[in-house]
Design goal:
Blueprint lengths: L3 H10 L4 E5 L2 E4 H11 L6 E4 L5 H10 L5 E4 L6 H16 L22 E6 L9 E5 H15 L6 E3 L7 H13 L2 E4 L5 H10 L4 E4 L1 H14 L8 E4 L6 H10 L4 E8 L3 E8 L11 E5 L4 E6 L10 E2 L6 E6 L6 E4 L7 E3 L2 E3 L2 E6 L2 E7 L4 E3 L2 E3 L1 H9 L4 E11 L3 E10 L6 H8 L11 E5 L12 H9 L5 E3 L2
Parallel strand pairs: 1-8, 3-4, 4-5, 7-8, 7-9, 9-10, 10-11, 25-26
Antiparallel strand pairs: 1-2, 5-6, 6-17, 11-12, 12-13, 13-21, 14-15, 14-16, 16-20, 18-19, 20-21, 22-23, 24-25, 26-27
Helix pairs in contact: 1-2, 2-3, 8-9
Length: about 475
């Protein structure tokens, strides 16, 4: 069961307590159950959910996964061509007769279907081409809920705020996790720093779930504006590694919070993570993520003669290779778009191609194999370069990419968003000499007026490469 059987329990135990709050509008547990139940007769075996953040989204999602139904959650901001392409693919899938039967007795009530049946159709992207579609079983999310509740210490009195789009897996999972655990879930119609600050200061929010770029904005502007975040007990960050400046700002703005970061993927669920309690020294600027989640096994595999393949030889601690995972939380695989590269499986182990290594039982993430820069025969992971750069005073954010080079094959270049005041290339090169091996240091630096990110707040190295190649006004050569 993902969460619907639990939902009925909370409606009986606390019918009038708020379950979902979106920009001030809320549904109680009983209202959520009643409205989702009323929607069942018109909810097909496979439904398309492409609503913006709203209480209606929560109602439609609950109805869309009831019984043996499956819910495909689309991003409403996708271009029409992407949305139409996904709809066409889903229509073809439904015509093959693989859709759940909404007329079955199990589908007539707001209850969970068999654990091994699929309930969610998720998507990996959707900005430039038809995204890959994958499915998840009900059991995989139940195991994920139990693991995340234990790992993050979710408490019955927590009030969670996930201010990003519910169509993103990070926020959709946070919603479902709260419905499973019986704790209040809050979000906003759209991300706005002032609105988040108001919720933190006045709505009893104790737990934030968000990406690092959002945390940076909230922390720095919250400190400048004197926004009280003393009630925040937990901050959960995912999507990219926390850089030194974001971590420092978050520690100052929410001094009582344990700050968690974790590594996972839509296809893999949770893999590894760690929490930094209040007052504990930070290990900023390194690649360490943390130990495996409950129920997760990790191996680092390599040894393949094909540089694009993960290999099958288990590598010793400290040696980089493909991060491979075995757990009950892994997805069922793809409905379409499986090119054999994005998610590989063998002997019960799965990988999405991320590179890393184990040290003292903790996972270190270096980045995607596809992001790796090969400069003069040396493998350089942009993630390492970015973490080193952001630990330098005067650097707010950084992003590294590889550009073609006649001599090296590729050369490492870096874009930097400076802090207040001037920043010279000499300062950067001097500071980096103590942080990064010579062969991994960027050959050129660019000042950025803003960080290249996707519409979901994730760092986009491809966008930086495009800015540099087109002489975009947001890029200025530093040296």
């Amino acid at each position: 069961m993902p969460f619907l059987d639990r939902l009925q329990r909370w409606a009986d135990d606390r019918p009038d307590a708020p379950a979902v709050v979106v920009s001030g509008r809320y549904l109680s547990w009983s209202e959520l159950c009643d409205e989702a139940t009323a929607l069942l007769p018109q909810t097909p075996g496979i439904s398309l959910l492409e609503l913006p953040n709203s209480v209606d989204f929560a109602v439609a999602f609950a109805a869309g996964v009831a019984g043996t139904r499956e819910c495909a959650v689309l991003d409403p901001t996708w271009p029409d061509s992407i949305r139409h392409g996904v709809r066409d693919r889903l229509a073809e899938f439904i015509r093959t007769g693989q859709a759940a039967d909404p007329e079955s007795p199990l589908a007539q009530e707001l209850t969970d279907g068999p654990p091994d049946t699929p309930f969610l159709i998720g998507f990996t992207s959707g900005t430039t081409s038809i995204p890959k579609a994958f499915t998840r079983s009900r059991r995989s999310w139940q195991l994920s809920f139990e693991a995340s509740k234990e790992f993050f210490g979710l408490r019955p009195d927590d009030v969670t705020l996930a201010p990003g789009p519910l169509s993103a897996s990070l926020n959709l999972y946070a919603l479902a996790e709260c419905l499973y655990a019986g704790t209040q879930f809050n979000t906003l119609e759209s991300f706005d720093v002032a609105d988040v600050h108001q919720a933190v200061a006045f709505d009893g929010v104790t737990r934030l779930v968000l990406v690092p770029t959002m945390l940076r904005l909230l922390s720095e502007r919250g400190l400048a504006g004197g926004v009280d975040a003393s009630g925040i007990r937990t901050i959960i960050c995912a999507g990219s590694k926390l850089d030194a400046r974001t971590l420092e700002a978050a520690r100052r703005w929410a001094p009582g919070a344990t700050i968690y970061e974790y590594y996972g993927a839509s296809e893999l669920s949770f893999v590894a993570g760690s929490g930094l309690p209040p007052g504990e020294p930070a290990r900023a600027g390194n690649t360490r993520i943390g130990r495996p989640f409950p129920g997760v096994e990790i191996r680092i595999l390599g040894g393949s003669p094909d540089p694009g393949a993960p290999g099958t030889t288990e590598l010793p601690e400290g040696v980089p290779g493909s991060v491979c995972v075995r757990s009950g939380m892994v997805s069922n695989g793809y409905l379409w778009g499986d090119d054999g590269e994005a998610l590989r499986s063998f002997d019960g182990w799965y990988t999405v191609g991320d590179q890393g290594y184990l040290a003292d039982g903790a996972l270190h993430i270096l980045g995607r194999r596809s992001d790796m820069i090969q400069a003069a025969g040396i493998n350089v992971y942009p993630h390492e370069v970015e973490l080193a750069l952001t630990s330098i005073p005067g650097v707010t954010s950084a992003v590294a990419v590889g550009l073609p080079d006649d001599l090296r094959g590729q050369k490492v270049v870096a874009g930097i968003v400076p802090a207040h005041g001037a920043l010279t290339v000499t300062q950067v090169r001097t500071a980096l000499s103590d942080l990064l091996a010579r062969e991994k240091r960027p050959q050129s630096y660019y000042l950025l007026s803003e960080l290249p990110v996707t519409d979901r707040g994730k760092l986009s190295r491809g966008l930086l490469r495009e800015w540099i190649e087109t002489n975009d006004a947001r890029v200025a050569h530093l040296g």
